[in-house]
Amino acid sequence: MKKVLFNELYYRIILFLVGIILLVDVSCASFNPSSYKSIEDCVGATGVFVISKNDPGYNDARVGERVRFQQYPRMITYPTNTTQVQQLVLCSNTFKITPSPRNGGHSYTGTSSLNDSLVIDISNLNSVDIDTVSQTAIVGGGIRLGPLYIQLAQKNFTFISGICPTTGLTGVISSGGFGLQSRKYGTTGDLVFEAQIVMADGSILTSNSIINADLFWAIRGGGATYGIITQWKLQLIPAWQTVSVFTIEYPYDPNLFSSVLKSFTNFGHIAPDDLSTTLFVTNTNFKIVGHYLGNNDQIYEQLSNASLLTYNGSPIKGCDRESIEQNFLLRCDHLGARAYFLDPNKTCKRYDYLNIGTSPYASNNFTYTIQNVTYPPAATAPGVVTQGVLSVYSPGPLQAREDVKTKSMYFDGPLNDTAINVIIGLLKQMPSGSFAELLSYGGLLPTQSTNLTAFFHRNVAYHLLIQAPSTSDPTTNAWINQWDSNVRPFSNGQSYQGFEDPDLPNFPQQYFGNNLQRLQNIKSKYDPQQLFSSQSTLNTTPASKQTSSLFGTCPFVHDETVPARRSFGNKMFNLIIWDKIMINLWVIVIFLIW
Ligand SMILES: Cc1cc2nc3c(=O)[nH]c(=O)nc-3n(C[C@H](O)[C@H](O)[C@H](O)COP(=O)(O)OP(=O)(O)OC[C@H]3O[C@@H](n4cnc5c(N)ncnc54)[C@H](O)[C@@H]3O)c2cc1C
């Protein structure tokens, strides 16, 4: 009797579990995009929050942090889970509307908000689950760097990536990702174990060094065009107890600058791996900013031995040991050191600079009221967005949107005298609101293979970033364009894919070097119909003038590798459903036999 009862209970539990499996599957499978008349209906059926062209928040929602290329997507959606991302991709695919995945909205050419596209903003997929034993974290693909650093710090960990807290982790990893600690630990993409990706056919792939390893290689530095990444598994770094940071401001004298520039490029790339240095120049000042992992008592000696504190053999005024120690050097905790680079007053205390909410950007020239609180315009920046309503607000300082033009180039070694003279000539004419930033590479990177991941720029010494206000002023435009004509010939010709520049004559090659062909093959394998746009990496038309179409003649994949053009919406959907039904039938049969 007891045994019969036990058996009955046992079967009931099994039936209950099978029921749950069926229920879960049916809830995914019951979404049939081809049963809707339009993309609007299809998206509406997913239940996600949507902003369309006539909605009041549209202008604010469509614009990211860079506003040079204004684009007008059809709808902006905010899914809250991976199933909704799948459904949105299926809608895109069925109605042939390009999906624009968006994370931090920092794309220089607005590729996360393309014209007439369906923006899939995954900011809500921002969970951070830390495993302190394995020193790993599973994080949502929508997390931004600031919130990531803050949450990791609560468990005494950190991660290697960029400074700007509003930048999206997924966008950075897709670019490769270089941070102030990369000289010691490698790129952001080097410190990733696994990704979960929603593919063009709505399926979810796991990708790591064993499963779909080619895709895993590509998504770390190979551009963002293979699918929508909804989750990452990261290798965490135990947080440093102390980080030494410093800013050495020099008197503004072009002759002195020439000497410092020369010494800097002889030193930065061969400095100890713990030390990351950047030379930063505007039209009114120039300085070296440094970040050392630990408590560095040797900064003065290191900079002095590199001739960065002397000019013509004599000490530079204000750069003696005491001044360096007392006026320029700060010892911070690791989070404070990140805040230091954001704080104009150069303290390590303004952690709130890292505390970015879901709508972190503000336009420059208007105040706005949300939840009865009036916010002023964001800090001044060269560009202005004239319209906008901030629809959601989360605490944290707002970052100004910027309308700027940039140039990115890499150098393989120290600059020679001719290059220095050309650079000084251009710096002397620098328009206001512009800057030049020379960042030291070297350290671990040149010891790694240039095809470790798709991020190619490892065997380099410096990265130069030039930024100017984007304007119709011919003098400013001519100035920034001269960096291409006059300075790029001294570089190795490469350019960072994270700083997209539509002016580059051959940018796929310049972004990906010898990794390009392999990336093209992987793209054609995983997204043969080119649902996801490759404009960020391949199209030579400025993004503002591009029109997106699912089956456009994007040159990313060579024509011969592109399968015949056809609609696969219905067929693909049926395949997904049959797949699920067959799996469920098998589960039931196995249980019954058992
Ligand atoms: C102010 C500023 C500071 C920066 N600092 C650094 C730095 O220190 N180090 C560094 O390495 N780089 C830096 N960058 C460059 C940065 O890495 C790239 O601009 C990056 O692409 C931005 O990512 P995002 O998610 O913020 O932008 P987004 O515009 O949201 O995305 C960028 C690209 O990734 C795609 N994408 C976004 N989310 C997904 C997803 N989930 N799945 C698939 N594709 C997706 C978008 O469609 C778009 O093509 C900086 C850029 C700016 C503007």
From TrEMBL:
One Gene Ontology MF term: FAD binding
Gene3D superfamilies with a match to the protein in the record: 3.30.465.10, 3.40.462.20
Keywords per UniProt: FAD, Flavoprotein, Membrane, Oxidoreductase, Transmembrane, Transmembrane helix
Pfam families (alphabetical): BBE, FAD_binding_4
Family matches, as InterPro entries: BBE, FAD-bd_PCMH, FAD-bd_PCMH-like_sf, FAD-bd_PCMH_sub2, FAD-linked_Oxidoreductase, Oxid_FAD_bind_N
Co-factor requirement: FAD
Protein name (record): FAD-binding PCMH-type domain-containing protein
Record organism: Gigaspora rosea
